[in-house]
Amino acid sequence: MPRTLSRSEVDQFKAQLCAAAERLIERRGSTDFTMRELATELGCSPMLPYRYFKDKDEIIAAVRTAVLHRFAAALEAPLPAIADPVQRSRAVGEAYVGFAFANPQLYRLMFDLAPVERGRYPELDAAIARARATMTSHVTALVQHGLLQGEPEVIGHLFWSSLHGLIVLELAGQLGPQPGFQKLRAAQIEALINGLRRR
After folding, report:
1. Are 158 and 192 in contact (CB under 8 A)?
2. How far apart are CA 78 and CA 153, in angstroms?
3. What CATH class is the domain 1-53?
4. Which uninterrupted H or E stretch holds 26?
5. Three-class SS of residue 197?
6. Which residue in 98, 131, 181, 184 has its CB near the most CB atoms, within 10 A?
7. Global pTM exceeds 0.70
C-alpha cells in the first residue's frame, strides 16, 4: 500500500510533472502529447500522473497558470525602479517582447489555445487576470500625467493587441527583414501614441 504523501511532496511532484509537460510543449510546439509520453518524459509509470491530476487538460491548465505568472512577473519586475511613466511603459513593452521571443512556444501556449470557460480552473483565472492587469496598468500613469487621453484599460488593450499581432507574425516568419519587426514596432507605437495623445 503506497504511503501517504505530505502536501509539500505532492506539490513537488506536481511541479515536476508540469515542468515535464512544459518541456514537451517547447520541443513539439504544441500540446499534442499523450499522458504516456508525459510519463516517459518524467520517468514514471503511465498511471502515476493521474494520482495528481484528473486529466491532461488539468495539467495543461496548470502549465499555463505557471507560465502566465512568470510572464506577469517579468513585466512587473522593472516597475518599482522606474518613476517616469513613459520609461515605465517602455520597460513593460521591452519585457513583453523579451519574454515572447525567449519563450515562443510558451507565448503561444498563453494566448493561442482556445479559451477555457471561466471558473473551471480558478488558479488559471487568477493568473490570466494578473497578466492582463500587468499588460495594461502601466497606461494608467500615462493618462494621469496627461500624456494620453482615454480609458487606461482600453488603451492598454490596444497596445497589447497590436503588439501581439506583430509578435505572432514575426514568430511565424511572416514579416521578413524589411521593414522588420523593430521598425514596424517603432512605427506602431508612434502611430498609437499620436492618435491617443491629449490635445
Report:
1. yes
2. 20
3. mainly alpha
4. helix 7-28
5. strand
6. 131
7. yes
